[in-house]
Structures
1.
Amino acid sequence: MESNIQKPLWLTNETIEQLKKDLAAFPNPYEGAPPEEDFEFDGFSDIKRENAQFAWDVLTKYNIPF
């Protein structure tokens, strides 16, 4: 499905591949995640989850399959 939103210049093929790798660490990053107002970083896995949530949001916004 095509998106009517144009990809920004920073969203290169290399960036897309990195986002997919970040998402692979947490395939469903929002499952079991605390609400944003309660979210506190508590180590490396939380940073990986935050990266996966960002990847999910970007890939979904621009309709990039993952």
2.
Amino acid sequence: MKPETLWLIAGLAGTVGVLTCLWGMQNKKSGLSTRLTALDEHFQLPDLRFTYRAEQVFATLEGVGDEGKKLLMRLWTLDFALIASMFAMMAVVTNNVVEMAWLSAVMLAANCLRGAADLIENVLLMIVCAGYPRKKRAFAANAAGAATAVKWVSAVLWVAGMFLSLFLRGWKM
């Protein structure tokens, strides 16, 4: 099979995966985020903040209660598929847009770091959620907040690399 065909398949799989995961998380009728917001009108997913501290995670878990904890565990499980799908999409974009080897390497590294930080964040948040309220695992919650910051910084670095590459390609025209 040609490399172009494999990249096309990876891009399609990544796109379908991202859309499916986002639908499961965000759809207005029965999405996990919608259901969590119904349990706590002030609900904000920790993953979507730039960073957070243990107290904020505990307040979120307290706000959604036991039913919300189950929904959060399902959401973070689904997020593993979203992480893999986004990794595939970002790798395909890097392959198709970037012409300079050094920039491609930086963007691939940023994509790998983003994915790893997101995986670590999910695992830590699931550990915190599973033990709460019996065990308040502040170290794991704080470490998840740090992993979240790494995830966002590496994602921004990847996007900056993409725009730089597009700018340089346009400049050559």
3.
Amino acid sequence: MTPNFWRTVDSFGTAGVAALAWRLRLGAEYTATRAFLRRSSHHAALVPDPDDPRRWLHVYPDSAHGHVAISDESPPHREPLPLKAEDVCELTVDVNRLRPQLANAFAFVAATEATTAARDVHQLGIAQPTKGRAVPVLIYLPCGLPTDRAQLLRALSELPPSVLYVPTHRWQTPDAFKLANNRSIAIESLADRLAETLPVAATLSAPDEPGSSAARAKLRPLLRVQTGWRWEDVRIRLTIRATMIASHGTERGEHRFASAEKGESIRHFPRLFKMLIEISFAGHWQNPAPTTRDYEKVSKSFQRLRQTIEKLIPIPSEAFVRDGNRWRPRFQIQLDEEMETVTRRYRSMKNSSDHADAEEAE
């Protein structure tokens, strides 16, 4: 990837442009950068004139050559141009192929796949300058429409604190910087970063988090995530002190859930911690039926649990996978010996009480 590649992306947008246009614009770089482009299912309706790229030609089917490009000027400024099938296939940027390359170049942790963060904005991974701090790494790719600038400003007003890459510095306007500063978003131009004479690979300058130091410390990452980490290799152990101990290889960290007012008994454990205990026994979480009275309350609590786990262990993918109406953890979870003994005793007493209540109701 070069500054010229990103200037071309900025010019063409993501709507899909003829391969001939990419080849003419990128020149000798086309072969190396073709891997970062994906082919659409359509043929291009326009191609640039190879002899005068400022002029565009209309593409039509042709029985002799497959396709032919014709000038729409009167009289035509040139003879019809025979084209190969590969010239008229539409190409656009492939965010998922760019993701690991950008992660290697700029020293952030790549996600297993790019995900949508806002319209035209994709999350590529996370930057974690310290163990206790992580922010999303995002990229904005314009569509090539007159509304692109308005869409970027709208996204900046909604995105969380993050590092946002844009193709070129033309998106780094005063309005964009003002919104970004209010949201603690660092905007970086890919073309400018790649044009620097210093080595490209460097840890991102993650923006400062807003709010008080107490608020920032509320949910800090437990582990310093590294490239290639998977949720399947994360182990979580729960203790009688309402503590979650997380580990991945030699990395280890722990988080104490809010202390219960009435002591460390399972009945008074925080709601999210009790949900983790249930998941450790059942192997999954299942919300109540949508028609029940507690559905909204419980489903919101589980959503908060998912967000909490993903903030504490910022692997850039989802910690739970949905299986029908169940949510299965992708990580391993277990209770320590003391916690398991107390939990089994509590569950046994609760089941006995529920059974007695049922018999009395009969």
